[in-house]
Amino acid sequence: MDEGSEEPEPEAVPAARRRSPGSLEEEVLGVLHRSGELSPGEVRDLLPATARLSYSAVVTTLTRLHTKGVVTRRRHGRGYIYSAPGDPATLVAWRMNRLLAGQADHRRALTHFIAALSPTDEALVRDLLASAPAPAEHGEHGRGSEPRRQG
Question: Is the pTM of this model over 0.85?
Answer without folding.
Answer: no
